[in-house]
Amino acid sequence: MGLTQKHYNHRPKLGLDDLNELLDANFNEPGDTATIDPNDYALSIDELIAEGQKAGYTVAKAADNKHLEFS
Predict the structure, then answer these.
(1) Residue among 23, 68, 63 nearest 44 (CA)
(2) Pick from 67, 64, 65, 61: which is nearest to 41 by CA?
(3) CA–CA gap between residue 9 and residue 54 (Å, rounded)
(4) Helix (H, G, I), strand (E, B) or coil at 69
(5) Which residues contact 6 (CB under 8 A, 6 or more apart)?
(6) How far is CA 44 from CA 18, 19, 50, 68, 70, in A?
(7) Are 41 and 5 in contact (CB under 8 A)?
(8) pTM (predicted TM-score)
(9) First CA to last CA across the chain, in angstroms?
(10) How far is 26 from 24, CA to CA, in rounded Å?
(11) Over the stretch 17-55, which tens digit does the pLDDT of each residue have?
């Protein structure tokens, strides 16, 4: 018996429905925020920002310049 072949867990990228669920779960009161890693999503950063703004969120790059913060 030996090792199995090396493989990577290729999870499908997330979509707008996933983002909507995350935002719904995180926004319960005024002042709530949510931070996402745009690399987890199938949409581009510009698309994520545009969709968030279209839904009434303020969307900005986080201080680390790698994540997006929705408020």
Answers:
(1) 68
(2) 67
(3) 33
(4) strand
(5) none
(6) 15, 13, 10, 12, 15
(7) no
(8) 0.82
(9) 53
(10) 6
(11) 999 999 999 999 999 999 999 999 999 999 999 999 999
